[in-house]
Design brief:
single chain, 605 residues, alpha+beta, Immunoglobulin-like, Rossmann fold, seven-stranded mixed β-sheet, elongated
Length: 605
């Protein structure tokens, strides 16, 4: 770190003109090399006079915008009544920023006056660092209020102008008062990453997208540049920022340089004074990491921006047309789904593309994958799911004899069932018979024409009841019932499902609209889509590392949550929130290992 030497042997009262000339001399002639700089008082005053020739400071500042003056000369002299304009840290930050934002700006002289009217600081810029020289107090510690103000300015500048440190050398000494990032006269600053960002750990590393990938290349630079300097790297407050750290395997925790055991490391600077290291974040969504670079592991140094672990996935939506209509099913509820995953640091991004297949009343077993493939683009595979609205997906289950006692004409059965109606016509029943029993003849079973039977409904459960017209055939009454037997074909209806081992999620809107009240439909569909997307990323998990998920339960329909208020409960109703255990499991899920469900390409034209 360069030091400011004694300014000749004749030291007097350093007025603002003196330091304007001094700053100009530093910036224009020294080229940043302050090691052996000495200036006599007469020489300094001569430079000052040349600087102010043919203009008074009052006239100059009245005629020239202060910021423009700064940009023209890289020197700014505020004093007297003009000082009142920059007494707040916000304005100070703005003034400094205006100067340093200019391409090629090398520095400025800034006079900041307190009640004693004697604060003077010279600032120069080296790369993304501000060096602050305080000749008035160079022999001791900076004034506390002065440090507070300039530290505030640095924080603002770090965000707006890429400034990472304030370094205050002491006059005539190799030591310095460090506001950030200096050791033994050499400063260190983070070159990248300097800003807070989300790190999408499941995505492949990409030079154009440094926010992709679990491994982050971190680079720091020493000033002045010096080769073969050891840089110490450490993770800041890992225990505090990673609440589930103890439940992750060592490999899934944060570490340096490809070794899961390394929580700190070192590397050497090159000829340009830069040192780099590879840092692996954890895989746990929401973990936050800041890495510190220092020249002495016993001292603090400069820190990276905060890296927050996220996982990004995409989903595509296609919606089938309704029966006998060109209008497609409404699946707009999907737009409310991504917000349900934000607390688990899962970023579901809608892939803006929809197709509207012609209606198929029922997608039969064994045809779902083939059908969905025709409309799935898979542009973001292996991290893209496919949400498809269809009419029905019902499975033919049984064809068994059923007995009824008809007591009226027409007769409507008092029990409803999920009849398999999807082959059209009367295909849901193979035959029906009625019994004209009498004491004289006994059973007398006769076929009933199929045009005499129909179905009512569906009711609010999607079920239908048998209806029989006996007109001209018989006259059943409560006192004289007629026995009927049928051989119906039953269906097992799906409201929604994830096709195991594929990216395809089916929402059976024809059936859902039959069983869900219109007022509740959007909320229900939102929950359905979120539930199935969670299944795609392997929910409900049994746990991770040293943690066992107490809510996990294996049901006939697969892994679910035992909490009836959770969105991952098997027989969910209107739930649109995850329980605490499922949130934790989703945060700890290693999305990179779930790509088997998403590893898919478009296979059909």
């Amino acid at each position: 770190m360069p030091n400011i030497k004694e300014v000749g042997s004749e030291k007097g009262t350093f007025d603002s003109g003196f330091f304007a000339a001094y700053a100009l001399k530093l910036m224009r002639e020294s080229g940043g090399d302050f090691e052996n700089l000495e200036m006599g008082q007469a020489e300094v005053y001569a430079a000052r006079d040349a600087f102010l020739k043919n203009s008074t400071r009052t006239d100059f500042l009245e005629e020239t915008d202060a910021a423009e003056f700064l940009l023209q000369l890289d020197v700014c002299d505020y004093y007297g009544e003009w000082t009142e304009q920059i007494r707040t840290p916000e304005i100070l930050s703005e003034r400094i920023g205006n100067c340093l934002a200019r391409e090629g700006a090398c520095g400025m002289m800034l006079l900041v006056m307190d009640d004693s009217n004697h604060w003077v600081s010279i600032l120069t810029r080296e790369e993304n660092k501000i060096l602050v020289y305080d000749p008035e107090r160079a022999g001791g510690e900076p004034n506390a209020e002065w440090v507070e103000t300039l530290t505030f300015a640095t924080n603002v500048l770090k965000e707006k102008n890429g400034v990472s440190a304030l370094i205050v050398p002491k006059k005539g000494s190799a030591q310095s008062t460090t506001l950030a990032g200096a050791s033994n006269g050499i400063g260190i600053e983070i070159v990248s990453p300097t800003k807070n960002r989300n790190q999408y750990v499941n995505l492949d590393a990409d030079e154009a997208h440094p926010e992709h990938g679990r491994v982050v290349r971190i680079t720091a630079k020493v000033a002045p540049p010096k080769a073969d300097k050891k840089v110490h790297w450490s993770i800041v407050d890992e225990d505090k920022n990673c609440p589930y750290r103890a439940d992750l395997t060592a490999e899934n925790q944060a570490h340096f340089a490809g070794d899961s055991a390394k929580k700190s490391d070192t590397s050497q600077t090159n000829a340009a004074g830069e040192a780099s290291i590879d840092f692996s974040t954890s895989i746990c969504g929401g973990d936050k990491f800041t890495v510190c670079a220092s020249l002495d592991k016993t001292q603090s140094g400069d820190k990276t921006g905060e890296l927050t672990v996220w996982r990004r996935l995409w989903y595509e939506v296609d919606t089938m047309k309704k029966r006998n209509s060109e209008e497609a099913f409404d699946l707009s509820a999907h737009r409310d789904v991504p917000a349900l995953f934000k607390d688990m640091f899962l970023d579901w991004v809608y892939e803006e593309k929809q197709e509207h297949p012609d209606n198929i009343w029922n997608i039969k077993d064994g045809h779902c994958d083939e059908f969905a493939d025709k409309y799935f683009d898979a542009n973001k595979a292996p991290f893209q799911a496919h949400v498809l609205a269809v009419d029905h997906q019902a499975t033919l289950t049984i064809e068994a004899e059923t007995l009824w006692d008809a007591d009226a004409n027409p007769y409507v059965a008092d029990l409803s069932f999920p009849y398999y109606i999807y082959d059209g016509g009367k295909s849901w029943v193979s035959k029906i018979e009625y019994n004209l029993w009498s004491a004289a003849t006994g059973d007398d079973w006769r076929p009933l024409p199929l045009d005499r039977i129909s179905l009512t409904g569906p009711d609010q459960k999607g079920l239908r009841a048998l209806k029989i017209d006996f007109t001209g055939i018989a006259n059943p009454t409560p006192a004289n019932t007629i026995e009927v037997r049928t051989w119906p074909r039953m269906a097992e209806e799906s409201g929604a499902f994830w096709l195991l081992g594929t990216p395809h999620i089916f929402v059976c809107m024809g059936h859902v609209q039959e069983i869900i009240l219109k007022a509740d439909l959007k909320k229900c569909v939102t929950g359905i889509i979120a539930h199935e997307l969670a299944h795609v990323v392997a929910m409900v998990s049994t746990g991770s590392g040293g943690w066992t998920n107490p809510s996990y339960v294996k049901t006939e329909g697969g892994p679910h949550c035992r909490d009836p208020t959770c969105l991952m409960f098997e027989f969910r109703d209107q739930q649109v929130v995850f329980c605490g255990d499922c949130k934790r499991a989703l945060r700890m899920t290693d999305i990179r290992k779930k790509t088997g469900n998403l590893l898919h390409t478009k296979r059909s034209a």
